[in-house]
Amino acid sequence: MSPLFLLFSTIILSTILYNLLFKNRNKGTRPLPPGPKGWPILGNLPQLGTKPHQSLYAIAKNYGPLMYLKFGSVDVIVASSNHVASQFLKTHDAIFSNRPPNSGAEHIAYNYQDMVFAPYGSRWRALRKICALHLFSAKALDDFRPIRQAEVMSMAKEVYLQGKEGAAVNLGQATYVCAMDALSRATVGWKIFGEGKEASEFKAMVVELMQLAGVFNVGDFVKGLAWMDLQGVVGKMKKLHKRYDVFFDSLIEARRTGKNKGEGKDLLSVLLNFQGEGGDFEEGKLSDVDIKALMLNLFTAGTDTSSSTVEWALAELIRHPDVLQRAQEELDSVVGRNRIVTEQDLPNLPVFQAITKEVFRLHPSTPLSLPRMADNACEIDGYHIPKNATLLVNVWAIAKDPAVWKDPLRFDPGRFLPGGSHAHADLKGNDFELIPFGAGRRICAGMSLGLRMVQIMSATLIHAFDWNLPDGQTPDKLDMEEAYGLTLQRAVPLVACPVPRLEPVAYEMAN
Ligand code: HEM
User: Fold this and answer.
1) What is the pLDDT of residue 19?
2) Residues annotated as binding site?
3) Does residue 305 lie in a domain region?
4) Which of 152, 166, 189, 217 is the most exposed place for a label (fewest CB within 10 A)?
5) Is 373 helix (H, G, I), strand (E, B) or coil?
6) What is the dihedral of CA 223, 229, 233, 239, to 10 degrees?
7) How high is the pLDDT of residue 23?
8) Contact partners, residue 11, CB within 8 Å, separation at least 6
9) How far is CA 289 from CA 112, 198, 261, 292, 295, in A?
10) Which residues span the domain enclosing 68?
């Protein structure tokens, strides 16, 4: 037998065997969704570029709203339309209630001991229940309302004083301090970051966390390359984790030693009680690590998301002075000019509510939501979705789908007003064309608080001030570029000069 004949027969035999063993196994199952061809070993990872939500949006224009990609050896499914998203997050939500393994969860989030990355199950449920009861329920939100209001007032006063001196305000920074102080008083009973420097340091830590969490780390997808840490992500994660850990240790220590007595019913005191004899956390006693992991989630997921949304809102309104004026007229008629707007006013402000929705539509703060993973294989729209596939829901792309949104890139809050094309759309995971908080079982745990903070901070800044751009910048040239990260930062922070527009007494009321 010639060697050539041997080679040919081996190839033919192997092909037949492969078809029998593997191809025929898929007989009866559906094809994978369409998607672009990837590179050897890395698959489609190199195609993600620096802004993956935008790249995936562009790729979906060619392959459709249900795509299959390969990141290294991991199957990845991308949903880019409201219909497809609802198939995953509503019809098949039970299958997609876990998050895929990733280095961020391991190296920053205490090895999955937090809530965001906890496996779907009783421990995750118990953590969500504690937060729902003590932070996010209607009663808890009402109990903490005076705290939020006080922090918003103190932001207004600070901005007022800067405005009187003709100074420009970094809006992302001002709203971040406000969101953080309101949240930290409710969670750890302490206004930790009220004093400038620490606040900017912590914001930088949160932004770094979001940047690192937004990197598609090659080692997560090509296991053989993990040890090399090609992008240096894991090294940075470990360093960052240490900084967070020291910070959370100091918070717990301050409470135990009585340095921080808290403000009464804050979450930290509830959690520390679970550690005592009478503790009844359903999943056994809470360790310090459990508490730190939860604090990490709340302080990171709950601050920059809200403050950056307000920053985008102000940027859009500065670019659209007619809309800003309409919102101010509505606020003046409901609130007047002698006091600062309160949360109780919000339901009476339909124009303002429509603006909020339009901002969340164009600038969802988590553009690719948080990834989910298929616990089982399933079939969606006639396509096979493999077990263990990672699901990315491109909420940024869904909210710009021209099949659903007329003139999708235009800032037009009127679409959410009575008579508009989306007059009844809500933001809370029911209308899949607008899901900035995600949807289904793992929908954002802090949605109720996040919405309130975004609304009360932006309503205050719109009502209490007119805004001018510094250094001869004109509104039509305002840079609206997005920066890279898990959350949607502005590439260029918004800096603007406030001009007080209420009676002085309104700002004096602010403490
Ligand atoms: C503008 C404000 C916010 C936005 C747009 C937002 C968005 C999101 C999104 C898209 C998810 C993933 C949902 C999914 O998988 O379907 C999420 C999860 C989460 N968010 Fe938010 N969020 C905001 C504010 C907050 C606040 C204020 C907190 C807490 C203080 C918070 C805590 C969480 C937690 C703990 C999760 C994980 C839930 C789980 O895995 O069960 N978020 N958020």
Assistant:
1) 40
2) 444
3) yes
4) 166
5) strand
6) 120
7) 43
8) none
9) 11, 23, 21, 5, 10
10) 30-509
Q: Is the per-residue pLDDT at 467 higher than 50? A: yes
What are the pocket residues of ligand 1 if the criterion is a CB atom closer than 6 Å to any ligand atom?
Answer: 115-116, 128, 183, 297-298, 301-302, 305-306, 309, 365-366, 369-370, 436-439, 442-446, 449-450, 454
What's the gap in Å between 393 CA and the centre of ligand 1?
Answer: 14
User: pTM of the predicted model, to two decimals?
Assistant: 0.92
Q: What is the CATH number of the domain that holds 112?
A: 1.10.630.10
DSSP letters spanning 404-445 = TSSSTTS--GGGGSTTSTTTT--SSSSSTT--TT--STTS-T
Mutate which of 444, 452, 453, 458 to test ligand 1's pocket (most atoms within 8 Å of Cβ)? 444
State which of 144, 294, 437 you would mutate to test the pocket of ligand 1, scoring each by most atoms of that ligand within 8 A of its C-beta.
437
Residue 22 is assigned to a structural domain of this protein: no
Q: Do the domain assignments include residue 377?
A: yes
Question: Average pLDDT, whole number, for the chain?
Answer: 90
Rounded CA separation 23/96 (Å) = 26
Q: Is residue 70 part of a domain?
A: yes
Q: How does pLDDT run across 162-178, given as a tens digit for each residue?
A: 998 999 999 998 999 89
